Amino acid sequence: MATQGQVITCKAAVAWEPNKPLVIEEVQVAPPQAGEVRIKILFTALCHTDAYTWSGKDPEGLFPCILGHEAAGIVESVGEGVTEVQPGDHVIPCYQAECKECKFCKSGKTNLCGKVRVATGVGVMLTDRKSRFSINGKPIYHFMGTSTFSQYTVVHDVSVAKIDPVAPLEKVCLLGCGVPTGKHFSRLGAVWNTAKVEQGSIVAVFGLGTVGLAVAEGAKAAGASRIIGIDIDTKKFDRAKDFGVTEFINPKDHEKPIQQVIVDLTDGGVDYSFECIGNVDVMRAALECCHKGWGTSVIVGVAASGQEISTRPFQLVTGRVWKGTAFGGFKSRSQVPLLVDKYLKKVSAFSALLNLSDNLIYSAFPTFCLLFFQEIKVDEYITHNSTLPEINKAFDMMHEGMCLRVVLDMFV
Ligand SMILES: NC(=O)C1=CN([C@@H]2O[C@H](COP(=O)(O)OP(=O)(O)OC[C@H]3O[C@@H](n4cnc5c(N)ncnc54)[C@H](O)[C@@H]3O)[C@@H](O)[C@H]2O)C=CC1
Ligand SMILES: N[C@@H](CCC(=O)N[C@@H](CSC=O)C(=O)NCC(=O)O)C(=O)O
Ligand SMILES: [Zn+2]
Ligand SMILES: [Zn+2]
């Protein structure tokens, strides 16, 4: 039966209150309005950021809401004026929009987009500042402009990446957040976009979850000579070797501050460090373990409301650089489809070569070819598969440190 223009009643995991178990509810999903797209979500993964907002520590967290932002699905219907996708298209909803028109998009300096952020930050759609989700007339807030813990969701058209229909949605759903955030994918992602790790660099990765391991993998591909993985959970260490980590440190094994331990081990500090946890004390350690004069530290983790970073300004005066990254610097609508192509090994070498200067093509060509044609790891980050009704157990696994990504089949 055609559902276009109709309210769809479907199942969704609703977060009624912070920290209270998600409840599988029958929700009503209104048809998309102008500039909106309704998507049938087939697979969604859980990211630590969902747990963060659910915990009540996100200043933008509103309840009741439908969490979820790492997913893939099929367009069910589109609102007026939507031209770039149509029903039946395979898509990845992107929490980071790309309108291609706002000053952010046009700047060439950032992947952040300003078009719908004001609405997605308060759980509504831009057109009328209302939610498309309700339960018996009670509105339920959207989350990150995606709300993928629902069998159907409505998103802004600037937040939809159309992908090759051949791609397995149960795998490429991971390209909606965590993996690209850290991964290089032919000189893209946090390691390349944000920090530009060079051959021979010493890299420290704090936090060996999906995001940290993707950073490690990217650093390895960039030619890092040492990749030091730091985690307080030693069961993370074995798996991390497969993602390129060469040395492990558990801060709990040391009396000295972890930054001092790393400085001592590296003749003055690392060239690059990445904080992939969301802990402001660790962010400080990650900056302070960087080498004087040039060390760069990238904040990837998301810290709780009220938390602030600090260090002695002398750390920066003496040449260390403190940066951050959102979605690894990727432009969502234009680059997520390329990541999918790369996963499918179909992307054209030519388009990537266009991104390189002549000198770089000449000097980096052999390395580039190696990187470009190497297989894209995505499946390796999926440690568990589950279903929507089992979502609370999936989050338990995350909190116990049992998993990397758990992918939920939304219709089982
Ligand atoms: N900036 C961005 O665009 C994105 C940021 N994130 C953020 O990145 C962070 C990591 O996300 P996931 O990998 O999904 O999380 P995760 O929970 O899978 O991994 C975090 C790791 O940090 C370790 N850890 C916790 N406290 C630690 C400490 N004090 N010292 C050392 N290790 C510690 C844990 O044992 C775990 O292995 C989260 O804060 C998440 O919100 C996630 C996606 C995108
Ligand atoms: N609402 C949060 C913001 C958290 C945050 O920084 N999110 C990251 C993505 S985390 C994905 O898993 C991000 O890209 N931020 C940029 C943005 O525009 O939100 C808070 O206020 O703490
Ligand atoms: Zn995420
Ligand atoms: Zn924009």
UniProtKB/TrEMBL annotation:
Location in the cell: Cytoplasm
Signal peptide: none
UniProt entry keywords in alphabetical sequence: Cytoplasm, Metal-binding, NAD, Oxidoreductase, Zinc
Gene Ontology molecular-function annotations: alcohol dehydrogenase (NAD+) activity; S-(hydroxymethyl)glutathione dehydrogenase [NAD(P)+] activity; zinc ion binding
Gene Ontology CC annotation, any one: cytosol
GO biological-process terms attached to the record: formaldehyde catabolic process
Alcohol dehydrogenase-like C-terminal domain mapped to chain residues: 211-336
Gene3D superfamilies: Medium-chain alcohol dehydrogenases, catalytic domain, NAD(P)-binding Rossmann-like Domain
Cofactor: Zn(2+)
Assigned EC number: 1.1.1.284
Residue stretches making up the Alcohol dehydrogenase-like N-terminal domain: 34-163
EC class name: oxidoreductase
Recorded catalytic activity of this chain's protein: a secondary alcohol + NAD(+) = a ketone + NADH + H(+); a primary alcohol + NAD(+) = an aldehyde + NADH + H(+); S-(hydroxymethyl)glutathione + NAD(+) = S-formylglutathione + NADH + H(+); S-(hydroxymethyl)glutathione + NADP(+) = S-formylglutathione + NADPH + H(+)
Cited InterPro entries: ADH-like_C, ADH-like_N, ADH_3, ADH_Zn_CS, GroES-like_sf, NAD(P)-bd_dom_sf
Subunit structure: Homodimer.
Family in the record: Belongs to the zinc-containing alcohol dehydrogenase family. Class-III subfamily.
Name by which UniProt lists this protein: S-(hydroxymethyl)glutathione dehydrogenase
